[in-house]
Design goal:
Elements (H helix, E strand, L loop, with lengths): L7 E6 L2 E6 L2 E2 L13 H12 L14 H13 L3 H12 L6 E2 L4 H22 L6 E2 L8 H12 L3 H14 L2 H8 L5 H8 L1 H10 L3 H24 L12
Amino acid sequence: MKRFWKEAAVVQEAAGLAVTLDGRPMRLPGGVSLRFANRALAEAIAVEWGQAGAPGEPFSFDMVPMTRLAGTAQERVAVDPAASVEALVSYGGSDLLCYRADGPEELTTRQERLWQPLLDWAEQRYGARLHVTTGIIHVSQPEASLMALRAALTALAPAALAALGIVVPALGSLVIGLALAEGRLDPPEALEIALLDDLYQEEKWGADAEAAKRRTHLAADVETAIRFLRLSAGVAEQDGEAAQ
């Protein structure tokens, strides 16, 4: 597919804000127009399309990740939020932060220092106490804790659930995802925490080019999803964020 439009613009329509491509509103696969909660998000989407190559050059939807998130939120999550909530709760039942190494001590100390405060935060914030184990043997989590996490997710808007649908599987942790959503962590902090084991191994055995490439893609996905979440919620961007 090639870029077929010259200009992307934000317009106010009777049903809300929309982004047009050469005057034609963008539509979802189901045929309805894509709408935006506020002007900051709509303008960010318009910029995304404006920067997606040049007219006549190859185009793919990978170039417009926030648009894909907006479409997912409107056409899928908003229609059946419970399905998204349950998919995310399943990560709480096997959260990365609950599975600790049994050695070496240097690694286990780092896990305790970086991971335990987030589990403590989840208990204080949501009443969700999660059990910790060593190794890979599954540990069952209290149903009351999973219910508390479910309630927290159910209270979120479709846009936030769509963003967490990217972040949580990518990081392997519902707790880290919720901490990002609430501003308890920023994306670089979240990546450092989620990739602690990999980064430790890299320290000991050296860098791996493919692993570094995967981390770069992961970081971009997380940054984009959290930026979308914050814009959707009307959180003003700091200087420099819009250029990311």
